[in-house]
Design brief:
Length: 101
């Protein structure tokens, strides 16, 4: 068993599903240590990708960040924004209400 080192986006190499199935524990241990995606192949073709929890979380955070940026840009382009002083006043008012003042 060797850990694939090729880029999963462009490579057709990886671990066959039968190998993964037969040695799941070992592959999960290797996956956790390498923190690299594992391409799973079926009939020599990429069929899936297995990620460690930490890599999945990093990718998920990046996706949420990019989505938030895109939403903010769309709001700005549509004129849905506040000038600095209005934004500061809005935050102060929301904080005051949350604290029950």
């Amino acid at each position: 068993m060797t850990m694939p080192t090729d880029d999963p986006k462009t490579s057709k190499s990886g671990v066959p599903v039968s190998e993964l199935s037969a040695h799941t524990s070992e592959w999960l241990e290797r996956l956790a240590k390498s923190d690299e995606p594992l391409v799973i192949t079926q009939d020599g073709e990429p069929a899936g990708v297995l990620l460690s929890p930490s890599l999945f979380e990093r990718i998920s955070k990046q996706a949420r960040f990019i989505t938030a940026i895109d939403e903010g840009l769309a709001d700005s382009e549509a004129g849905r924004y506040l000038e600095r002083d209005a934004a500061v006043a809005d935050v102060k008012e929301r904080t005051r209400r949350r604290l029950g003042e």
